[in-house]
């Protein structure tokens, strides 16, 4: 079986919603842009790259996914259902991944992503994934068989100062 890797990225720090705008329309703050760009550069330096990106269609998630899609020159699939997705929706979305994809980056939101980090590998203590936090797992099954407990945590990255 081919080794598969799943990386979960929580969007960068976002500004409050502007008057008349919704949470969905929140933009990254200057700090959020800086940290996401640093994290993408760290991944390139560490030769960590995905060959498929799923991203929530929320403005802050799109802005967070863009530097990774550019650096890795890989497809970015925008899924509206990832906006504030619960655990079941996250699993359902990932199960649609083509079988030949080896590494997926999913860019989304809490609390779903934090729940998923513990769900994939119960050895991971429950904790909140910080903004611009990236956690990676080796998956022990095919994408279509993705389920709780089917992964092993391999790394956690946050942007270096």
Please give a quick description of this structure.
This protein has 161 residues and is an alpha/beta fold. 29% of the residues lie in helices and 22% in strands.
Main attributes of the structure:
161 residues, alpha/beta, Rossmann fold, six-stranded mixed beta sheet, 4 helices
Detail the poorly predicted runs.
none
What's the CATH superfamily, by name?
A: Phosphoglycerate mutase-like
**CATH-scheme architecture:** 3-Layer(aba) Sandwich
What would you call the shape? globular
Number of domains: 1
Number of strands: 6
CATH topology: Rossmann fold
* CATH class term: Alpha Beta
The end-to-end distance, rounded to whole angstroms, is 38 Å
Write up this protein.
The structure is a single chain. By secondary structure, the protein is an alpha/beta fold. It has a single domain (4-157), classed as Phosphoglycerate mutase-like (Rossmann fold), CATH 3.40.50.1240. The chain is built from 4 helices and 6 strands. It has a 6-stranded mixed β-sheet with strand order 3-2-4-1-5-6, with helices on both faces. Helix 2 links the parallel strand 2 (52-56) and strand 3 (76-79). 38% of the residues are buried.
């Amino acid at each position: 079986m081919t080794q598969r890797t799943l990386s979960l990225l929580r969007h960068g720090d976002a500004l409050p919603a502007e008057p008349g705008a919704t949470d969905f329309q929140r933009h990254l703050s200057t700090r959020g842009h800086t940290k996401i760009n640093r994290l993408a550069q760290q991944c390139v330096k560490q030769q960590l790259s995905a060959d498929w990106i799923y991203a929530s269609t929320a403005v802050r998630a799109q802005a967070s996914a863009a530097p990774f899609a550019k650096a890795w020159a890989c497809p970015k699939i925008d899924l509206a259902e990832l906006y504030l997705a619960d655990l079941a929706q996250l699993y359902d979305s990932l199960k649609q991944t083509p079988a030949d994809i080896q590494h997926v980056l999913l860019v989304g939101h809490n609390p779903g992503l934090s729940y998923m980090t513990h769900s994939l590998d119960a050895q991971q203590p429950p904790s909140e994934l910080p903004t611009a936090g990236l956690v990676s797992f080796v998956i022990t099954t095919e994408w279509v068989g993705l389920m709780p407990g089917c992964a092993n945590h391999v790394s956690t990255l946050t942007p270096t100062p």
